[in-house]
Amino acid sequence: MKRKLKISVAVVLGTVLLAGIAFGAFVAAMYIEAATFDVKGTPFESEYYMDEEGLFLGNIPRDEYITDGTEYMEEGERIFDIRSYGASPEADFKTNRTAINAAITEASEAGGAVVVVSDVTARNCYFFMPGIAGGYAGIAIEAVDGGKVSNVNLSNIYMDHVTSPLLIWLGYRKDGSALEDISVTGITSVGCDLPSAVVGYKKSGETHNVKNVTLSDFSVTYREAKEDTNIYLKNKVYSGKMNMGGYPEITRVSHAYFINHTLSGYYDLPVYGLYAEYTEGLTVSNFDVTPRSYNTRALSNVAF
Fold first, then answer.
1. Average pLDDT in the 261-274 region?
2. Number of domains in the chain
3. Domain carrying residue 124
């Protein structure tokens, strides 16, 4: 069956199975309280709504969610936006042999409750953004608002023209968040604009680290473009201390809070490969990055 839907919303208590269905929509599909969510051989198209969710799962209980052999998923900002709006956590999300545009995001929004996102696996995927890269990182793993993300395993992913290959970000918009036990391996990224980043934060003299991250077998190539390392705010070059905390975000340049959000300075990260700050147990191996031909920056600010 091939059909384009503007919106599909369902409340399901049993098993949800999508097979061979084409979606092109403001919101491609929304499934609430599904015991099992299984997508096989399903192409998703969001070409007319590039800034909306390709697939949104809300209030999903603990179980296993699989996309297997999905041919095509196109989205400008995020494809899998996995959130919880209450005490019900998500767990065991898996995607396999899936072509995806731009991003997989594991996020938590709890409204005061402690939310856990754990046991997430994605492998053998293709992420792409036509034309000039934009939006989020190819892979964005983020924890904020007291949410906890752990045991994420991503492997064998090819990215074409994403902005940054990888962003692992522990934010401090609210205290109590945790981000740990992350493995990302077998990443090929071509035509990127920004380095990868693994960042925690320091607040009121207390350090909050991203813990136990393993990165291995990366092959990254930059898109050729003019590189300007001095980005101005009101005709002044920002030279203050870097602060990668706050709400997780990555666009063309990194975000530094030095007074408040409206007076933020924007500037490029000082490396072309990997930036890491406030981490504990970071292991990096076979991390190969080819910068722009006139690059003047170091590969990383950490040794590996």
1. 61
2. 1
3. 76-300
